[in-house]
TrEMBL record, chains A, B:
The keyword ATP-binding applies. Residues 12-335 form the DhaK domain. One of its GO terms (cellular component) is cytosol. GO terms for biological process: glycerol catabolic process. This is Dihydroxyacetone kinase DhaK subunit. Keywords: ATP-binding, Kinase, Nucleotide-binding, Transferase. It holds the Pfam family Dak1. GO terms for molecular function: ATP binding; glycerone kinase activity. InterPro entries: DhaK_1, DhaK_dom, Dihydroxyacetone_Kinase. PANTHER family: TRIOKINASE/FMN CYCLASE (PTHR28629), TRIOKINASE_FMN CYCLASE (PTHR28629:SF4). The keyword Isomerase does not apply. It comes from Haladaptatus paucihalophilus DX253. Coiled coil: none annotated. It comes from the Archaea.
Length: 338, 338
């Protein structure tokens, strides 16, 4: 058994989220600000009057998710819970109210029981306290499992980034709350993801791996919270891993031949970019073989799981509206589209 | 002793660079292209007529360096050697000639003996074969060691990214070869970096760590090629590590009180963004205490060392010209400034 020990650039484990958020604001003081006594970050200029706000959040440990996507054309607010722990309903409600510019707020929720419950409660609180219109979508793009440790139904993982991008663009273009919710749901209906772990992550508080993996073993179908996957297999080549992930994703989506897609090869936090490019090479070759046309391919760390080594593959089947919204300019700490 | 085993998303170890470059072109087909039978990537539209070209390169394993910085406002060409191995003089010469738009080519070289020798030979070859004007600068920003395993004098590390940015901006603004070389040298004269490793990296060919570190040990003053550092110390907190790195960097630069600086907290490849933000928090607090003013702060993986866990701290002391050139718009796979 490979024993991984905790070696992290942190101070007190209990201070990780607080200090990480401060360090992020210190890096992007013109773009984001932190609400007082809160783990909520918002666009520096929030609330933006006359625009629907798009907010998200969830447990920490997935950086640059969520606050990395704050900015014009994407998110207005991001609530950070402790590592792998939902933010409280009070903080989410505070975020919703701080971001409302009079046209309502869309909450983008990843499908975990804690997140869904706290965001729903927060939406009700915000509606009661300040008469804001609140709508929600629940992202469930992980094709690996139907139910998991933390979910009823499929988990929300890296496909969430496309939901943020598309909803944020529609809001920026002046869409009303129904429009913004509709396009967010369109992404959810057309996106699928599956991931693999070469190593477990190590949480700061626990200080040891959340699951054990042998030297020559990997997990297929992992989530982003240190859950083990659905299948433990012997170490395979990058091409074989990419085939397994991509076949499951495409079987779920079943796109028509000739369909245009956007893809993400997402690093889990401890895997270098060079390896993600090797995965992207095989992914694009498989899509080509299937007669699919890649309209845009993203490669990088978009939704991580602390220091886990591994990756996920996301495919979104596009139409003209989604292409236009993905191409809409955005400027955030983690993503810039010009 | 902690034993780390090779778990990588790769196929044949000998194919890593070739497949990684293909995967990068597949992700950015409108931005970069690969020269035939070569590990050189260039801007899609190279050569750009009437503009000085800026080229760089070196061993692979530092992604997104070098090809991630190809594009308008930054690099015209990037030559990739095998992992931690200099590209050949022939490939570099081919790159110089492919990128020359008639106004000459600046080669940005990191100070390693193999790189310096091969780039210098390449420059002479290119001048003989196609009468191109070639100039060079040698980056040596690592304050940790005076001489190292691979260098006479200081090593070139993450400060190189600022050299690419500033030289590329001056070329994009229409500067001549002397101007471009002058501002590149100005960055080199005003930038300093120091790094730390929590774990060794593992090279694909060797498949095991390049140095051994105990469970509770870290290395200070590491390079980017799996060299051990200059000092092995017990694991410290993020704040203590940041203090050690930053104090060495500032002692070297000795900036005047009130000076404006740009900073990079750079991840070594296996360290998640959340930890880099925690380092940035302390760095910015230290700069503030010293009466320095941060004009721009970058946090992310800019120049990595495969899957090494750790980070480096870079500080560049600015003047008005450098600020203007850093702010110049750039659009590359790894860096966008609008």
């Amino acid at each position: 058994m490979v024993t991984r020990h905790m070696k992290k650039l942190i101070n007190e484990p209990s201070a990780v989220v607080d200090e990480m958020l401060d360090g992020m604001v210190a890096a992007h003081p013109d773009e984001v600000r932190r609400l007082e006594d809160s783990n909520v970050l918002v666009r520096r200029d929030a609330p933006v009057e006359g625009k629907v706000a798009v907010v998200s959040g969830g447990g920490s440990g997935h950086e640059p998710t969520h606050a990395g996507y704050l900015g014009p054309g994407m998110l207005d607010g991001a609530a950070a819970g402790e590592v792998f722990t939902s933010p409280t309903a009070d903080e989410v409600s505070e975020m919703v109210q701080a971001c409302d510019g009079g046209e309502g707020v869309l909450m983008v929720i990843k499908n975990y029981e804690g997140d869904v419950m706290n965001f729903e409660t927060a939406g009700e609180l915000a509606e009661m306290e300040s008469d804001v219109d609140v709508a929600k979508v629940v992202v469930n793009d992980d094709v690996a499992v139907e139910d998991s440790l933390y979910t009823s139904g499929r988990r929300g993982v890296c496909g969430t980034i496309f939901v943020h991008k598309v909803a944020g663009a529609m809001a920026d273009e002046g869409g009303d709350l129904d429009d913004v919710q509709r396009v967010a749901q369109k992404v959810i209906d057309n996106v699928a993801t599956m991931g693999t772990a070469l190593t477990s992550c190590i949480t700061p508080e626990k200080g040891e791996p959340t699951f054990d993996l042998g030297e020559d073993e990997i997990e297929l179908g992992i989530g982003i919270h240190g859950e083990p996957g659905v299948e433990r297999v012997e170490m395979m080549s990058a091409d074989e891993i990419t085939e397994r992930l991509t076949e499951n994703v495409l079987d779920d989506l079943d796109p028509d031949e000739g369909a245009e897609v956007a893809t993400i090869v997402n690093g889990m936090g401890g895997t270098p970019l060079s390896e993600l490019y090797i995965v992207n090479r095989k992914l694009q070759s498989m899509l080509d073989d299937r007669g699919l046309e890649t309209w845009d391919a993203w490669v990088g760390d978009y939704m991580t799981s602390l220091d886990m080594q591994g990756c996920s593959v996301t495919v979104l089947v596009l139409d003209d509206e989604l292409k236009e919204l993905l191409a809409h300019p955005v400027e955030t700490p983690a993503l810039t589209v010009t």
